[in-house]
Amino acid sequence: MGRWTGHTTRALLALALAAAATGCTAGRDAAEPADGEARRSHGKAGSNGFVVQYRTGGRAATATDYLRAQRILDAAADRLNATVKVPQRIPFVVRSCGAAEPAYDPETGTIDFCAEHVDEIRDRFRQAGPGPDRPGGTAAADAHVAAVLEETAYHESAHALIDRLGLRFTGREEDVADQFAAVLLIGQGRAGERKARAAADDYALAAAETPFDAADLRDEHSLDGQRAANYACYVYGAHPDRHEDLVGRDARLDAERAEGCADEWAQARGGWRQLLTEHLKRPL
Ligand SMILES: [Zn+2]
């Protein structure tokens, strides 16, 4: 089963369904933290745009410390704010979500960034170990984890932008959100291309972990294996000369798909440029 942003195990899905917390943007109870939980915001008090709030303590402590130390969300918020003008304040709230997944909540206008998601991604790459795509072992795995969490941040921020800016488009919102993440990552150049490839790796690992079944066909997200291929296609389409290894037998893309990836990438980036035309501070 696909996570909302991509990586839910079936068990987690069942729990999430039980908690009526499905999907990235599904209306759901915003489980507010207990009084007195520590918070720290990144960004000027009262400023608009994306900010980061760390709700420390309890089960979220390790993941929160990791996110804070790596500045993953702070850097993502900075990049988003440098790119898009948003009239509202949109907090990433780092906290324990229980069975729920990271999600933008249109009721509160906040993005819940779940400690459990951080743990899941870290566990996945730890178990996968250094492979052909991950020379360098631990350091490369850490970079992969950071890249996937950055991708999650951009994916969820796309839901927030769609809601807050009233963006209208065709096609499935979850795919459109992945495209936004790809645009934000690949736009960073070679380092960002590596991040998009890490996202593809993670979706492929998630797909291998939990083979899909009929229920997944009814989900609002594309299948994890498809999302892996999509990210690979955008990276390859942006710079075919640098990512030839993504195409071929047993690679992320077959030759037929790869042929259209330059166009797919141009459509994805062009689409978001058009959607955000009046809101951009700098070119996408
Ligand atoms: Zn989503």
How would you characterize the overall build of this protein?
This protein has 11 helices and 5 strands. It is an alpha/beta fold and 284 residues long. The protein has one domain. Strands 1-2-3-5-4 form a 5-stranded mixed β-sheet. A hairpin with a 4-residue loop joins strand 4 and strand 5. Helix 6 runs antiparallel to helix 7 and helix 7 runs antiparallel to helix 9. The chain is globular, with a radius of gyration of 18 Å. About 12% of the residues have low confidence.
End-to-end Cα distance, whole Å, is: 31 Å
Catalogue the unreliable spans.
Answer: 6-22, 26-41
Rg of Cα set: 18 Å
| Averaged pLDDT | 85
Bound compounds, each kind once, are: zinc ion
Number of domains: 1
Number of helices: 11
Largest sheet features: 5 strands, mixed
The run of helices and strands is: HEEHHEEEHHHHHHHH
Structural class: alpha/beta
How would the global form be characterised?
A: globular
Q: In percent terms, what proportion of residues is strand?
A: 5-15%
- How are the strands of the largest sheet arranged? 1-2-3-5-4
Helix content: 40-55%
User: How many strand units?
Assistant: 5
Organism: Streptomyces lunalinharesii
Protein name: DUF4344 domain-containing metallopeptidase
Pfam family, one: DUF4344
InterPro entries: DUF4344
